[in-house]
């Protein structure tokens, strides 16, 4: 589960070791964001457009992209259920969901993002303006 950098890298490495594995990557995103570069984007030394690609273009060869979101884990049955109701079984599961941003966890953070030199390299929107005055 997870089509970000960690999930895709792990899938690629596993397929390099054993090319006949059946790997499904469950991720609903149309776009893939290379977030580690956003610090460099914020510093003004890396082009943000090089950090955004179509998810379908970065899915490793010989793996299957399941364009869904997992809603439930059923480890006793070796199964995951997706929001659309589809269920997928597995022998092994790796969970790489990435992060969920919650700007409201810090009082005043959401309201001041992008103003008064407050920014974040966890969002492409705000990373673009990290060096702005």
Structure, explained:
- It contains 5 helices and 7 strands.
- The longest helix has 13 residues, at 5-17.
- The protein has a domain at 5-96: FAD/NAD(P)-binding domain (3-Layer(bba) Sandwich).
- The strands form 3 sheets. Strands 5-6-7 form a 3-stranded antiparallel sheet, with no helix packed on it. A two-stranded parallel ribbon has the order 1-4.
- Strand 6 (79-82) and strand 7 form a beta hairpin.
- It is of the alpha+beta class and 133 residues long.
- It has helices at residues 5-17, 38-42, 55-58, 109-112, 124-127, and strands at 23-26, 31-33, 52-54, 63-66, 70-74, 79-82, 87-89.
- The model has no long low-confidence stretch (mean pLDDT 91).
Give descriptors for this structure:
alpha+beta; FAD/NAD(P)-binding domain; 3-stranded antiparallel beta sheet; 7 strands; 23% helix; 20% strand; globular
Structure described in brief:
The protein has 133 residues and is an alpha+beta fold.
Q: What is the tally of beta strands?
A: 7
Q: What's the CATH architecture of the domain at 5-96?
A: 3-Layer(bba) Sandwich
Largest sheet report: 3 strands, antiparallel
Radius of gyration: 18 Å
What's the average pLDDT? 91
Distance between the termini: 39 Å
CATH superfamily of the domain at 5-96: FAD/NAD(P)-binding domain
CATH class of the domain at 5-96: Alpha Beta
N-to-C SSE string, H for helix and E for strand: HEEHEHEEEEHH
Spatially, the strands of the biggest sheet line up as 5-6-7
Low-pLDDT residue spans: none
- Outline: globular
Please report which band the strand proportion falls in: under 5%, 5-15%, 15-25%, 25-35%, 35-45% or over 45%: 15-25%
Helix-strand category: alpha+beta
């Amino acid at each position: 589960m997870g089509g970000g950098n960690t999930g895709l890298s792990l899938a690629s490495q596993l397929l390099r070791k054993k090319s006949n594995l059946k790997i499904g990557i469950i991720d609903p995103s149309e776009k893939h964001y290379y977030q580690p570069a956003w610090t460099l984007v914020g510093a003004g030394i890396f082009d943000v457009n090089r950090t955004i690609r179509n998810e379908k273009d970065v899915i490793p060869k010989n793996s299957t992209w399941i364009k869904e979101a997992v809603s439930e884990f059923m480890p006793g049955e070796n199964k995951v259920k997706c929001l659309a109701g589809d269920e997928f079984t597995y022998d092994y599961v790796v969970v790489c969901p990435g992060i969920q941003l919650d700007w409201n966890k810090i009082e005043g953070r959401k309201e001041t993002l992008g103003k008064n030199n407050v920014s974040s390299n966890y969002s492409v929107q705000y990373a673009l303006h990290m060096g702005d005055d």
